[in-house]
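fwd from M.: "can u put these together and see what the complex looks like"

so here's what she sent:
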Amino acid sequence: GAVVSQHPSRVICKSGTSVKIECRSLDFQATTMFWYRQFPKKSLMLMATSNEGSKATYEQGVEKDKFLINHASLTLSTLTVTSAHPEDSSFYICSARDNGGGGYNEQFFGPGTRLTVL
Amino acid sequence: DQQVKQNSPSLSVQEGRISILNCDYTNSMFDYFLWYKKYPAEGPTFLISISSIKDKNEDGRFTVFLNKSAKHLSLHIVPSQPGDSAVYFCAASSRYGAGSYQLTFGKGTKLSVIP
């Protein structure tokens, strides 16, 4: 089946530093990847849509200069949290849409990255 | 405004009985619906989906029912097993317009299956 990996699974950093999270589709190509953020006891909130070879599309209220997204290949998208602050602490999840998949819109999710900013 | 609503934050069911998780939506442009299962500190796992041209889709113990006129869908799990205990998210999407293929999620329902 379609597998999406995320790295790292957990990261603790100091306030003011930048953190990069990688999202890879392991056995399929993904023109489109999505980045979500989940707060405790809340739903998944879409942050941005990452398109291979073009600029990401950010949801309203998400700072594009703070959450840098790069989708350099059909199997890799990265999210960089710049100048991280404690309020950025959260669970970040990526998903990828299988270009050649039979399902119309099945997104396959990575295992998530727990970011803690001290 | 929440476009996908899961009004029950939690549900407890005895092992072997049926679990019914409900989901309502408000956007009539949604034409594809999905259910995901999520364990703590893990990404969601796709369970089952349904297109708006159907009213039922079945996969093993999981069946999704769609009532377009009521803008309501439900996930039935029968028989329920302790391993089904997780948070279940309902999601919807539209292939048209800006943001096509994006998923809009409900807040989730935590299912506990009691042995």
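replying to her w this: The first strand of chain A starts at residue 4 and ends at 7.
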